[in-house]
Amino acid sequence: MPGMQQIKQNSRAGVRLGTAIAAAALLITSACARQAVSTDLSLPGPVAPPSIGASPAGTVGAATGRGAVEAFMGAVKAQDLQAMSGLWGNEKGLARDQYKRDELEKRLVIMQCLLQHDLFRFVEAGPRLQTGGRQEHLVELKKAKLTAQTTVTTVGGPGGRQLVEDIDVSKLRDFCS
User: Is pLDDT of 140 > 90?
Assistant: First the structure.
């Protein structure tokens, strides 16, 4: 039967092993962290989208549907999930206030993967108007040798700010590699 000294040594070894495992997990996590600029989606208050959308700091959404699409695509390209979460929602508000964090994060990561691009452009000069004040924007994405067109639907959220509500990702399956 081990003595008290051996129990203390085994305990210290277990702590060192636990610390080593934690450090390795942190190292692995940090290697994967460059895939997304930010995953902390639980911050209170509004989050400023990237400057591409030209929204004032401290606001969510964008002043126009086109601005919401531009800002969202800029956040996708920057791999900034937090900025994406400040632009994605519906007439009720931001998706981050409607989904559990893990569900929200999964959906954002999938969208980020499918929408990752080298270049995007609007195919048409203006949006197609839909029911309920929605706007459908036809966009073209280019990634390496791939090119695809899809639609991004925006809607007015609380406070009149435009949010990205829906993206037809069915045409973008090849973009996620």
Answer: yes
Residue 150's contacts (CB-CB under 8 Å, 6 or more residues apart) are 138, 139, 141, 167, 168, 169, 170, 171, 172
The pLDDT of residue 174 is 85
Put simply, whether the predicted model's pTM sits higher than 0.85 gets the answer no
Claim to verify: residue 140 and residue 78 sit in the same structural domain: yes
Contact between 120 and 141 under an 8 Å Cβ cutoff? The reply is yes
- Quote the DSSP letter at residue 16: H
- Separation CA 161–CA 124 (nearest Å): 22
pLDDT in tens, 36-90: 444 444 333 343 333 334 445 457 899 999 999 999 999 999 999 999 999 999 9
Angle between helices 65-77 and 101-115 (to 10 degrees): 90
Give residue 52's Cα distance to chain centre: 15
CA distances from 146 to 76, 78, 119, 156, 174 (A): 17, 19, 11, 32, 8
Residues 29 and 70 in one domain: no
Cβ-proximal residues to 131 (8 Å cutoff; 6+ apart), any chain: none
Domains of the chain: total = 2
Higher pLDDT, 167 or 27: 167
